[in-house]
Amino acid sequence: MRDAELAAWLRLALTPGLGPVKSRALLARIGLPQRLFDGQIGLTHATLASLVGADCAQALLDPPPQGLQASLERTRNWLAAGPGRFVLSLADPDYPSALLGLADAPLLLYGDGHRALLGQPALAIVGSRNASRQGEENARAFAARLGSAGLCIVSGLARGIDAAAHAGALEAGAGTIAVLGTGCDIVYPAGHRGLAARVQRSGLLLSELPLGAGPMAQHFPRRNRIIAALGCGVLVVEAALQSGSLITARIAAELGREVFAIPGSIHAPQARGCHRLIRDGAKLVESAQDIFEELRGQIPLPALAPGPAARDGAEPPDGVPRQVLAALGHDPSDVDTLALRTRCDPGAVSAALLALELDGCVERLPGNRYQRLD
Predict the structure, then answer these.
(1) What letter would DSSP give residue 93?
(2) Do residues 286 and 235 lie in contact, with contact meaning Cβ atoms separated by under 8 Å?
(3) Which of 97, 252, 301, 363 could form a disulfide with 150 if both were Cys (CB 3.0 to 4.6 A apart)?
(4) Per-residue pLDDT tens digits for 335-353
(5) Long-range Cβ contacts of 346-354 (<8 Å, 24+ apart)
(6) β-strands 333-334, 258-261: how paired?
(7) pLDDT tens-place string over residues 238-262
(8) Are 134 and 265 in contact (CB under 8 A)?
């Protein structure tokens, strides 16, 4: 965008009290915001007030606010500092169509990374910040399996499930989008700077918030609607009853997206949100294949994962999963027994078994035992 055009969009987005909903009503009347601020259309205060309210109308008719030039310079400098950085306005032809169904679609999107991912079929994976070890392993394994089949993994860069989902996608060489609750120039939590750098190199950092916006509490529920809208569905791995992940799932359902949930122990607080979602109609999933079957025919996927009956000729598992599969034999065994046979840490065995289960190599039996399927 030219400076004048970017300045007009920034001013509209930064006008106090205006917000995306009122802004869309205004844009439907005037077209591009530059027409209003350049005086190309002469709207009276009364006409503007009927669209956006008296206070917002006055702010739009007043001279530009003092901080606008500084915001424009900061944005231009940020854009120039990285080849993958961009700003998309609601009127841009490259604006992701998946977000246009939101009544409060962001006026501006700031991105850093691979912009083409905005047009790729995607699935959101969300869950608890205080995730269990098994929950993080589930998120990582599902993200890797789904990502390797061509789905871009969308999440929020938070601790716990979000971080595991991004990591799983990156480890599988898949695309991943991190929707931030801060400006695109700020990483939160600070401990995720390394993860954010990896996402930026191989995926995409995305935010509707202006540069310099910090991690304020009200930012995170709002970014959830972007996570929900970008994907063809949302997978909730772990969630407490008061989790923001349930907000994401609700928005996804309202937008007509699929909602998936992984069940857990009836004694685990992190499983209660997933169980509520399942009672309310979310699809219970135990493997990535469950998700593929639900999405088959709805979206174009470069490659669908084979089910257990279609593994002939597939590449054999490698590393710890291969050791575990060899140690499992054809008699059911539990994690501790397999750890003794392979001399591997029980946590590594559990992760390997999950990966093998997602690949259709093993089946989980009652009593936390596993059996080979081939």
Answers:
(1) T
(2) no
(3) 301
(4) 888 888 888 888 888 888 8
(5) 347/133, 348/320, 349/320, 349/324, 350/134, 350/137, 351/137, 351/140, 351/141, 351/320, 352/317, 352/319, 352/320, 352/321, 352/323, 352/324, 353/324, 354/137, 354/138, 354/141
(6) unpaired
(7) 999 988 999 999 999 999 999 999 9
(8) no
Output the 3-class SS for 211-227.
Answer: CCCCCCCCHHHHHHHHH
What distances in angstroms separate CA 20 from CA 47, 98, 167, 315, one per listed residue?
19, 16, 32, 49
Cα atoms in the 13 Å half-sphere on the side-chain side of 32: 14
Phi and psi dihedrals of 295, rounded to 5? -90, -15
Instruction: Count, in order, helices (H) and strands (E) of the chain.
Output: 16, 12
Nearest residue to 251 via CA among 223, 233, 228: 228
Bridge partners (DSSP) of residue 112 are: 85, 205
Residue 365, pLDDT above cutoff 70: yes
The predicted structure's pLDDT at residue 10: 96
Sort 22 into a burial class: Cβ within 10 Å, 0-12 / 13-18 / 19+.
middle
Mean pLDDT of the region 161-183: 97
Q: Are 66 and 79 in contact (CB under 8 A)?
A: no
Query: In angstroms, what is the C-alpha Rg of the chain?
Result: 23
- b/e per residue, 94-118, with b = 16+ CB within 10 A? ebbebbeebeebbbbbbbbbbbebb
Residue 306 has pLDDT above 60, yes or no: no
- Say whether pLDDT at 76 is over 70: yes
Q: What is the DSSP string of 293-353?
A: HHHTTTS--S-PPP-GGG-TTPPPP-HHHHHHHHHHTTS-EEHHHHHHHHT--HHHHHHHH
Nearest 5 degrees, angle CA 256-CA 13-CA 67? 155
Say if residue 316's pLDDT is above 60: no
Among 205, 127, 130, which Cα is nearest to 170's? 205
For the stretch 123-138, pLDDT in tens is 999 999 999 988 999 9
pLDDT at 315 over 50: no
Q: How many residues does the chain have?
A: 374
Q: What is the pLDDT of residue 307?
A: 40
- Domains along the chain with CATH numbers: 1-78 (no CATH), 115-295 (3.40.50.450), 308-372 (1.10.10.10)
